[in-house]
Amino acid sequence: MLEPTPTAADAVTRVREFVRDEVMPLEPKLAGGSFRDALPHLEKARERARAAGIWAPFLPREHGGMGLSLYDYAFVSEELGRTPLGHYCLGCQAPDVGNMELLLAHGSDALKKRFLEPLTKGRIRSCFSMTEPDNAGSNPVQLTTRAEKQGSDYVITGRKWFTSSADGAAFAIVMAVTNPEAESPYARASQIVVPTDTPGFRLVRNIGVMGEAGSDWASHAEVQYEGARVPQDNRLGPEGAGFMLAQERLGPGRIHHCMRWIGVCERALDLMCKRAASRMISPGKPLGTRQVVQMWIAESRTEIHASRLMVLSAAHAIDQKGSHGARDEIGMIKFFVAGVLQNVLDRAIQAHGALGLTDETPLAFWWRHERAARIYDGPDEVHKVALARRILRGYGLDVR
Ligand SMILES: Cc1cc2nc3c(=O)[nH]c(=O)nc-3n(C[C@H](O)[C@H](O)[C@H](O)COP(=O)(O)OP(=O)(O)OC[C@H]3O[C@@H](n4cnc5c(N)ncnc54)[C@H](O)[C@@H]3O)c2cc1C
């Protein structure tokens, strides 16, 4: 238990070599966060990943992937996380990966042919459009975007923001209220596929985040749905099942994120140790001779180790019990590993001094991009509150 299976060990070896030889050398193309400049190089790396038979490790073989279980994929996701470009180069970047899983599980044959097939091949990109600027995203049952039935269509009206990767996406999966009268607020919304060339889909702007405007797959967009009309057949799953599907999507998604963060932490710790061993703070005295730096290294190693064990255990639980059965484990890793990520990055940057703030290492990139880890897919507090309430229920206290 918690060791890589032979399948995972083999995949990790192949992916590690690929990341070292083909992906890490592309990191300088990212300097200053210029994804547009990096993209042509990344497309070539994607071709090489396909040729090497390591494309889309999480996807079933019949869809062109490696067919790994969630548990096995967790190990691969860590390897890919060691570079900011890893997941994109193997076709498993968010939000596409979650959207593929949704289409696979709940898309009609027609939706699979039109959207899933090109998405799995990396020919198109997609986005997931749930959060709204006017409503608290941490309590998404308050959605106001509506999808009203007109004949055999839905007509969608509302405003979303932080629709990541909308810039250049071919379609969005939109969470919209279809059943406002449903008694349970969790039964009011549905997930609907909206091609971005639908009249009424309007990308208002790319939202700058932590000093970077973002473009293409690294963008976060505000999107206005102005009477966007799509067939009801574009709905995923039954009407009103939007939240159930979102929960299903976010379980494995949190494993992907957390293992990617552990990859980030491993690389940051490696950089910190190299710097500690080589940077002379006085003649003959490298930085690593100082106890405070030794504390940073020991604490980081311990926190990473604990994180990995927790995430692998959660992946195993999802494989066995599904996302709902494993919701405690999923909640715990989401806030715990996001916190470890911030700690380890902060220590690594501190150990590098001014160099840590430059784009000469990936640390500053991650610092800008990964502060969001404590907010997206549910802020820390929401996961903690939900976990505590489930625990308290066992003591007869039902907090609502
Ligand atoms: C980089 C990034 C990418 C994203 N990508 C997407 C995407 O692709 N698609 C999409 O739909 N959304 C996306 N989001 C949005 C994300 O899901 C929301 O930001 C998140 O759900 C929080 O919602 P909010 O920002 O409205 O914060 P709010 O709901 O306004 O909450 C603000 C703060 O209040 C606190 N808080 C909230 N609830 C509680 C509580 N019960 N108890 C105690 N404290 C609480 C938390 O500290 C929280 O951070 C993205 C966000 C980021 C930052």
Label this structure with key terms.
400 residues; single chain; 10 strands; four-stranded antiparallel β-sheet; globular; 11 helices; four-stranded mixed β-sheet; binds flavin-adenine dinucleotide; alpha+beta
Characterize the structure shown.
There is one protein chain. The chain is α+β, with helices and mostly antiparallel strands and 400 residues long. Helices cover 48% and strands 15% of the residues. It has helices at residues 6-23, 35-51, 70-81, 86-89, 96-106, 109-120, 242-278, 291-325, 327-352, 363-370, 380-393; strands spanning 126-129, 146-150, 153-164, 171-177, 189-195, 201-206, 220-231, 235-236, 280-282, 285-286. The chain has a 4-stranded mixed β-sheet with strand order 1-4-5-8, covered by helices on one side. A 4-stranded antiparallel β-sheet has the order 2-3-7-6, with no helix packed on it. A hairpin with a 2-residue loop joins strand 9 (280-282) and strand 10. Helix 3 runs antiparallel to helix 8 (291-325). The protein is globular. The chain starts with 5 loop residues before the first helix and ends in a 7-residue tail after the last helix. Bound molecules: flavin-adenine dinucleotide. Flavin-adenine dinucleotide binds at residues 95, 128-131, 136-138, 162-164, 209, 220, 372, 375-376, 378-379, 381-382, 385.
